[in-house]
Amino acid sequence: MLPTGLLKSFVSGGKRDKRAVDSIHFLMTRLFKLVARPLATAQTEGAFLGGLRLMAIDGTVFDVPDTEAEWH
User: Fold this and answer.
1) The pLDDT of residue 11
2) Residues 27 and 2: beta-carbon distance below 8 Å
3) Pick from 39, 38, 4, 41: which is nearest to 24 by CA?
4) Residue 9 within any structural domain of the chain
5) Which helix (H) or strand (E) holds 48?
6) Where in the sequence is the domain holding 43, given as residue range(s)?
7) Contact present, 9 and 19 (Cβ < 8 Å)
8) Each residue of 9-63: pLDDT tens digit?
9) Is 35 helix (H, G, I), strand (E, B) or coil?
10) Residues 16, 29: Cα–Cα separation, whole Å
11) Torsions phi, psi of 18, nearest 5?
């Protein structure tokens, strides 16, 4: 859970405080580095092929209209 002071400064007055955004980014990056680990082991069926860990990268791209005229 993030410190409430950071969250309050992030949303105070409806304006984003750059320091709060930077702090939240730093905290989330640090948290990811601390806890993110591969879940599959060498014994996990289907997790490796030819001794290499299988991975997937989602490259989904959506084309979204830029103007209201393009909606029609």
Assistant:
1) 53
2) yes
3) 4
4) yes
5) strand 48-49
6) 4-65
7) yes
8) 555 555 556 777 788 889 999 999 999 888 899 899 999 999 999 988 788 888 8
9) helix
10) 19
11) -55, -40
